[in-house]
Design goal:
With 351 residues, the chain is an all-alpha fold. It is built from 15 helices and no strands. The model has no long low-confidence stretch (mean pLDDT 82).
């Protein structure tokens, strides 16, 4: 992590902590009750929620591994899982800004070229957005038709969110599949970021990313079976996290798990299109707004806090061990390489 990224991360987290503190002052009674609910949550629910948090990375690992299956240096399922958890650390540490770079770096350490890793990471991001949009859209229509109280009340706003995610997904899909659009974007970028312009230094990065994304996107989308498998794996990945609110609320309420998963899919879709670092604040706002239509404010707040913990903080803690282990293995490999070079030099001198 560069000094600039570290500084930006510290600023982001400082703002988040300030907002959390202000929210606590504003809703102190509700937050205190929510923390009391969390404190009294059964150990079994805590363990199951932690397991589902980690199941997410099993599917993440399967996606990463499968994306490299046609490459010379294919990543194993375990390497894919390690990569996913490794990125989770940087996602939390930088509130999302460095998770993509972390994935490219880890994949490269496993033998995947940077250009390939860049394209795969962006393609993976696209399939995740497709899965979020698809699950959110199906949930919205289903809940609207079944007259879900929390949905009908805010149907207009949710429809706007659905339109927003549709536009984002459509653009990413078109960019991944169309060389014409990729070339057009590069042509416009070269005109706008011409030499002497303020952000000209960003042109090379844009060219690299757009080209790699388009090449890998066309490569994967050209294999229809693989594209379907990637989409299904992303749906299963998201499903594992969407069950967490039901797990943590079930000791207190009798809730339909399918209903909760659909509400969570819709909540996450809306949280994604609302601009905020790593979705912090926006997802919680939508979550509490929707869930308080059938449970108490403090229960909704407790579930929102726990969802954020198991989807961001818990993976960050686990990821810290993987980051340390990866750094240690990389240092050991470098030291071994230096020893080999020194021994080779000694042999030459002896000769």
């Amino acid at each position: 992590m560069s000094k600039k990224e570290l500084r930006n991360s510290i600023i982001k987290w400082a703002v988040i902590f300030l907002l959390v503190y202000l929210a606590y002052i504003w809703q102190q009674d509700t937050v205190d009750k929510a923390l009391g609910i969390i404190k009294n949550m059964p150990v079994s629910s805590t363990i199951i929620a932690a397991i589902m948090s980690l199941v997410y990375f099993f599917f993440e690992g399967a996606i990463i591994s499968r994306m490299t299956m046609f490459e010379k240096n294919k990543m194993t399922l375990w390497q894919g899982i390690c990569c996913g958890v490794y990125c989770a650390f940087y996602k939390a540490a930088t509130l999302g800004s460095a998770s993509g770079f972390a994935e490219i770096y880890y994949m490269n350490s496993c033998g995947v070229p940077v250009s390939k890793g860049t394209g795969m990471t962006l393609t993976q991001y696209t399939f995740q957005k497709i899965a979020i949009g698809l699950m959110g859209a199906v949930s919205f229509v289903t809940l609207l038709l079944t007259h879900e109280k929390g949905i009908t009340k805010y149907a207009d706003y949710m429809a706007l969110g659905l339109v927003a995610i549709t536009v984002i997904v459509a653009f990413l899909m078109f960019l991944a599949a169309s060389k014409w659009l990729a070339d057009l974007i590069l042509k416009l970028a070269r005109k706008i970021l011409k030499e002497g312009s303020r952000f000209h230094d960003k042109l090379e990065l844009i060219e690299t990313n757009v080209t790699a994304f388009n090449e890998e996107g066309r490569n994967i989308l050209g294999r229809k079976k693989e594209a379907v498998i990637f989409l299904l794996l992303n749906i299963l990945k998201l499903f594992s996290w969407y069950t967490i609110p039901w797990i943590v609320l079930s000791p207190e309420y009798e809730l339909n798990p399918v209903r909760i998963v659909m509400l969570m899919a819709l909540t996450n879709m809306l949280g994604v299109v609302m601009i905020a670092p790593a979705g912090l604040g926006t997802l919680e706002f939508v979550f509490i707004t929707v869930f308080t239509t059938f449970i108490t404010n403090e229960s909704a707040a407790a579930a929102a806090i726990l969802y954020r913990f198991y989807s961001l903080i818990f993976p960050f803690i686990i990821g810290a061990f993987f980051v340390a282990a990866h750094k240690k293995s990389r240092n050991a490999a470098k030291n071994a390489e230096l020893v080999d070079i020194e021994e080779e030099a000694d042999l030459k001198n002896c000769g």
